[in-house]
UniProtKB/TrEMBL annotation:
Keyword Secreted set for record: yes
Any one of the GO BP annotations: peptide catabolic process
Domain Peptidase M28: from-to ranges: 273-461
Organism, as annotated: Agrilus planipennis
Protein name: Carboxypeptidase Q
Family per record: Belongs to the peptidase M28 family.
Quaternary organization: Homodimer. The monomeric form is inactive while the homodimer is active.
Length: 481
């Protein structure tokens, strides 16, 4: 960086600082916040209890409990894919622990979930030279014939490129070497590669893993076959191998790959959503939900996705109970099952609890990492954001005061959010989340005790205050007037 650039950067930073100050002032003065002064005062009165929660988690006798309980669970069960015996044992364990630690109304609710089993699998580059390709079959993929599929491969960087070379795809393995833009934007290649390539007569697909960063690790995930095409085997390969295959093709080299997959889909299996509560002291029918999913992929340990989120939610109730804090409304922890196969547990739960829709005051979910927390991502009307900002200002000491919109990384609560129920997901320093996501690298080493202490302080405080204040979280403008 030269001096001139340096000065102009300094000026830019100064300018953006000034305009952010300006927008803060603007927000405070002109923002449509209609929280009545009594409610502002009431929220401020929770400072003592919030400090107690923070203190107990950061330096007191609850320090590292989220991390420790998660580590015990992860070390005991490892990964927990839907349909597995292991997931059901993990659910039993959580039910037992919930009772043991004094949670209330502990129970599970049954739901049929997909049962896909990977089996042994391999992808071997035969030509132009022999090399084992690190791969993972994608969830719901069919297997190959017992002897595998050996075929010439063709590499494309996009669905558009596939269309352009459609005439040359018949009988081949198509490799998708798409560029990673963002998870939301790029994941369509994992989801639809097989169907798009099958439409052109391909015999299998290999997809560059959906990740911004790779140490030659494949990342699995669910994929969807369209109804109208042949189901062909589909797997992910690493970014490194995908790039190499592209270079080989660009040099005019003929690529031959042998793919073997034993993947099988069995009939749906009974699983369970896991529920534990602290019953509300005054309005038990009104509910604040905290949640995360207990199932995971069948590689790595699912410590991050979503062990961290599930335990953040569950342990928030455990520590509130331990601290003797019973709010006016009911706090309900829900540990979803079969999120990875398409929010299967959540869909069933939302349907079964339609009768309570009016009583869901606020719904929270953590499923995008539990790195250093920064605040919340919120979906709802602006008045609710004002309430959350007032609550988060009580957490200034731990730097978790930001409210962004909308809530995301919270797929299991989206059904409720889209029905107008206000909710939030955890805002955290999740820049590296997709480095580990759905891969063998999703282990306990991703989780950090101090980040979990802070996240639990934030999560438990918000859940408690929202469940205890006089006013419901607003769904309609002017509700406070
Ligand atoms: C909590 O974890 C931190 C970081 O690993 C460690 O320094 C501290 O001793 C732990 N405290 C307890 C009570 O386990
Ligand atoms: C749960 O508790 C029951 C009854 O105490 C016990 O039989 C069972 O083995 C426990 N299950 C797990 C997974 O801890
Ligand atoms: C995978 O293959 C090994 C032998 O190569 C065998 O022992 C094992 O049972 C197979 N696993 C599955 C899930 O079929
Ligand atoms: C198959 O269905 C998808 C939508 O599910 C559609 O976009 C596609 O054009 C269809 N392909 C054929 C060959 O009919
Ligand atoms: C709603 O339905 C569920 C499940 O069917 C039941 O457990 C619950 O008690 C009902 N709640 C209300 C408020 O009626
Ligand atoms: C909050 O941020 C301040 C300023 O960067 C820092 O000094 C402090 O240690 C942070 N507190 C926590 C709990 O992370
Ligand atoms: Zn997840």
């Amino acid at each position: 960086m030269n001096l001139l650039q340096n000065i102009s950067v300094t000026l830019m930073l100064l300018f953006s600082y000034l305009s952010s100050l300006n927008s803060t002032i603007f927000n405070n003065e002109v923002n449509q916040c209609t929280i009545p002064p009594e409610l502002q005062k009431e929220i401020a009165s929770y400072k003592t209890v919030v400090n107690r929660i923070i203190h107990s988690l950061l330096v007191g006798d609850l320090q590292n409990t989220t991390y420790r309980r998660l580590a015990e669970f992860i070390d005991k069960f490892g990964n927990r894919i839907a349909g597995s015996e292991n997931l059901e044992n993990a659910i039993d364990y959580m039910l037992n622990k919930s009772v043991e630690l004094g949670l209330e109304n502990v129970h599970s609710e049954e739901v049929y979930v997909p049962h896909w089993v990977r089996g042994n699998e391999s992808a071997v580059l035969i030509q132009p030279r022999y090399q084992n390709l690190n791969m993972l079959g994608l969830g719901s993929s069919v297997g190959t014939p017992v002897d595998g599929i050996t075929a010439e491969a063709v590499v494309v960087d996009s669905f558009e490129e596939l269309e352009n070379i459609a005439a040359h795809v018949y009988g081949k393995i198509v490799i998708f070497n798409e560029r990673y833009i963002s998870y939301g934007e790029t994941v369509k290649y994992r989801q639809f590669a097989a169907s798009k390539a099958a439409e052109q007569g391909a015999v299998a697909t290999l997809v560059r893993s959906i990740t911004p960063f790779s140490l030659n690790t494949p990342h699995t995930g669910w994929q969807d076959y369209s109804d109208n095409v042949t189901k062909i085997p589909t797997a992910c390969i690493t970014a490194e191998d995908s790039h190499m295959l592209r270079r080989m093709q660009d040099r005019g080299e003929r690529i031959i790959i042998k793919l073997k997959m034993e993947a099988q889909t069995f009939s749906p299996k009974l699983s369970r959503n896991t529920i534990a509560e602290i019953k509300g002291g005054e309005k038990p029918e009104k509910v604040v939900v905290v949640s995360g999913h207990l199932d995971s992929w069948d590689v790595g340990e699912g410590a991050m996705d979503d062990g961290g989120g599930a335990f953040l939610s569950w342990n928030s109730l455990v520590i509130l109970k331990y601290l003797g804090l019973r709010p006016k409304r009911t706090l309900r922890a829900i540990l979803w099952t079969a999120e990875e196969e398409g929010l299967v547990g959540a869909q069933a739960y939302v349907k079964a609890h339609k009768n309570e829709t009016q009583n869901f005051n606020f719904v929270m979910e953590s499923d995008e990492g539990t790195f250093t927390p920064l605040g919340l991502k919120y979906t709802g009307i602006p008045d609710g954001k004002c309430v959350l900002e007032a609550i988060l200002s009580l957490l200034k000491d731990i730097n978790t005061t930001t409210v962004e919109e909308p809530a995301d990384g919270g797929p299991d609560i989206t059904f409720w959010l889209s029905e107008g129920i206000p909710g939030a997901s955890l805002l955290n320093r999740a820049e590296s989340y997709f480095w580990y996501h759905h891969s063998a690298a999703d282990t306990m080493d991703v989780e950090d005790p101090e980040a979990l202490n802070l996240a639990t302080a934030l999560w438990a405080s918000v859940a408690y205050v929202v469940a205890d204040i006089t006013a419901d979280m607003p769904r309609k403008p002017g509700q406070f007037l």
